[in-house]
């Protein structure tokens, strides 16, 4: 499998030969993972960018995730270096800023933002400023991000309920929904011919599980359903791509998290909070899932605790994404 790396929009600096499954490309480089199918691992720090994918169809390009406006601008020249076909669709895997705030950039390129209907519902909940109410998350993000402040929030306008299919006879991409996970509107892009899955943040590869808008218990069930697709390559929302084990590991992390939290059933929130270092140590001990335990842990533990009937913690501990 050939891997082409572009570390500068106009210059191909390296062309590496890597196995499709044994290794992964560097952050901010384009990786060809199939005929006309590309993966791009976004730079998390300091840019906050998500991962992207794109599929070059006969007449147009479908981009997976709009990213932040600055993230969209990182990949636009990289797509243009590969094809002169227009980007017609940008698929927001969910409503979060690092996956959907770049919509305006794609619209300016002539593309239409697509999402599962649930993603629009989530936007109505959190992007109150867009829907005529008090300032929401976009306005909050604009205070700290120039790219957001200089852009405009655009909601996805092409929506699907259970699936949307792109098929030009050579390539087929199915946009799917399997229930609540990271949010209530997680969309998945499934390429049945190549068995490649783009998961958005419903599956990540590293300490990036923001649980504030979803449901951990349902997330485990949703991953169980997704595993039945039989993906061979999994392109996560953040972190390096992997194989089917990524779905297993992501699910195993939440199962282990729930098991840790169960020990505190009926106890006071303060006791759970005080036990955070030991919960962290227990999760880190399991090699398979250790990489998922990080800064979001207190918020994840609190969420799991509440889902199991526990009380909310006295002080706000859920970090903003
Ligand atoms: Zn997200």
- The spatial strand order of the largest sheet comes to 3-4-5-6-7-8-9
Roughly what percent helix?
A: 25-40%
Indicate the proportion of strand residues: 15-25%
Whole-number count of domains: 2
CATH second-level architecture of the largest domain: 4-Layer Sandwich
Ends apart, CA distance between termini: 35 Å
Q: Which stretches are low in confidence, meaning pLDDT under 50 for 5 or more residues running?
A: 1-23
CATH class of the largest domain: Alpha Beta
Oligomer: single chain
CATH superfamily of the largest domain: Ribonuclease Z/Hydroxyacylglutathione hydrolase-like
Element order, helices and strands?
A: EEEEEEHEHHEHHHEEEEEHEHHHH
Bound molecules: zinc ion
Shape: globular
Description:
With 321 residues, the protein is α/β, with parallel strands linked by helices. The chain has two domains: 2-243, Ribonuclease Z/Hydroxyacylglutathione hydrolase-like (Metallo-beta-lactamase, Chain A, 4-Layer Sandwich); 261-321, no CATH class. It is 31% helix and 19% strand. The chain has eleven helices and 14 strands. It has helices spanning 69-80, 97-100, 103-108, 117-126, 137-144, 146-149, 216-227, 245-262, 269-274, 276-285, 297-307, and strands at 2-5, 14-17, 30-34, 37-40, 52-56, 61-64, 87-91, 112-116, 158-160, 163-167, 172-176, 188-191, 196-200, 233-236. A seven-stranded mixed beta sheet has the order 3-4-5-6-7-8-9. A five-stranded mixed beta sheet has the order 10-11-12-13-14, with no helix packed on it. A two-stranded antiparallel sheet has the order 1-2. Helix 7 (216-227) links the parallel strand 13 (196-200) and strand 14. Helix 7 (216-227) packs antiparallel against helix 8 (245-262) and helix 8 crosses helix 11 (297-307). The two termini are 35 Å apart. The relative contact order is 0.11. The protein binds zinc ion (ZN). Zinc ion binds next to loops.
